Amino acid sequence: MISPGVTLGGRYVLDERIAGGGMGDVWRGTDEVLGRTVAVKILLPALLDEPGFAERFRGEARTMATINHPGVVDVYDYGSDQQLAFLVMEYVEGDALSRTLSRVGRLTPARTMALIAQAADALQAAHANGIVHRDVKPGNLLVRPNGTLVLTDFGIARSALVGQLTVAGSVLGTASYISPEQASGAVATPASDVYALGVVAYQCLSGHRPFDGATPMEIAMKHVRETPRPLPGDIPPQVRAIVDRALAKDPNARWPSASALAAVARQAAASLANPAQAAPTGSPARPSGPVSPAPARPQSGGPSSGAPMPGSPIAGAARPPYPPVPRPVSGARGAASVPSGPPVQPQPYRQPYQPQPARPAQATKPESSGGRQVLIVLAVVLALLVLLCAGVISFLYNQQNAMGTGNTGVTGGDPTVASYRLTTQAGANPGWIRANEGRQTL
């Protein structure tokens, strides 16, 4: 009879029964040789009656001890005593995932994906060593207080598969997570562990297993023939797609490996926990460290916003000749100093004089050139008017003189001059003489 205080192998003292399952009971014990707490799994006596089971299980325990991974429980020892076979493993502080689900019902998608990623990493470490777990379920996933997960109970379910499916009550949990190929009698593969981990994820997200039934055989056949009920509507599409692929009936349609499942689950957990990291490509990234507050803009006397302050460590940047800014002698950094005398009116900042290059002579304004042309035209017009007036005055003056001279010769002027003019006019125009003969005789 197994009870607290029983010693196995001459060194392992059983302290308290902490769990039980279809393959046996798990006890918390003490290793009196090394003085450490251990977990002792005692196999059911009925399993030892199977030919070759004890020897096969011992070989698998040795293989499991070679796995060096933080997510896989360490195997310390294997032995038999008083017709009992037992396995000594690392004692993990924490609760089984099954207890957590019975207490809270459901987990958030981000938390579920984080746990699935850790469990898949542990399975990949086992698969790399040629070990298939064959019994992945929440009861074999232990969660430490810090949130890390440890996978336990490797390599026990394979040899007792038929007994588990026919003995009611002893393996109900295992039948609920069995893969379709295992339920059909095929050999379990790493893809079988991927399917069982998909069932665990389904339960964490929905709060129930995908299939229920009156007997383990009925439940196992549903894994082969039926499709699970859809996940709740509040599950993100990316998480839903991950679980649906893991639950594919065809092993070739599932995730190709446990490491592939771990990668997509970890990415989904990160995007759900930090939505800012899922931004589109090209968006500016936020700094990882604390962001220091921007310096306050000076009230007066300082440079304008955006210009580097004197002494700023900007390599290669030109520094304008800013006037020195007075610094407070005492007080907190960034606080305004208290003046000791009357307030001094701040002077506006004036940039130093910089000589301007001489402008070229031809760079005149179009307006001045047009004004000069107008003046020249006006001057020409005035000159023409003056010449025209002078010509008119001279013409009128000559006409007046000509008329005055003829009248004098005709009426009684100098006869000699009159005769000369008449003779000249007569020679030029004989008809004029005939017309004026009468006048000349008068």
- Helix and strand run: EEEEHHEEEHHEEHHHHHHHHHHH
The number of strands is 9
Global outline: rod-shaped
Q: CATH superfamily of the domain at 95-273, called what?
A: Transferase(Phosphotransferase) domain 1
Mean pLDDT: 74
Region (Disordered): 273-368
Keywords: ATP-binding, Kinase, Membrane, Nucleotide-binding, Serine/threonine-protein kinase, Transferase, Transmembrane, Transmembrane helix
Transmembrane segments: 374-397
InterPro entries: Kinase-like_dom_sf, Prot_kinase_dom, Ser/Thr_kinase_AS
Characteristic key phrases:
Phosphorylase Kinase, domain 1, three-stranded antiparallel beta sheet, single chain, alpha+beta, 442 residues, Transferase(Phosphotransferase), domain 1, rod-shaped, 42% helix, six-stranded antiparallel beta sheet
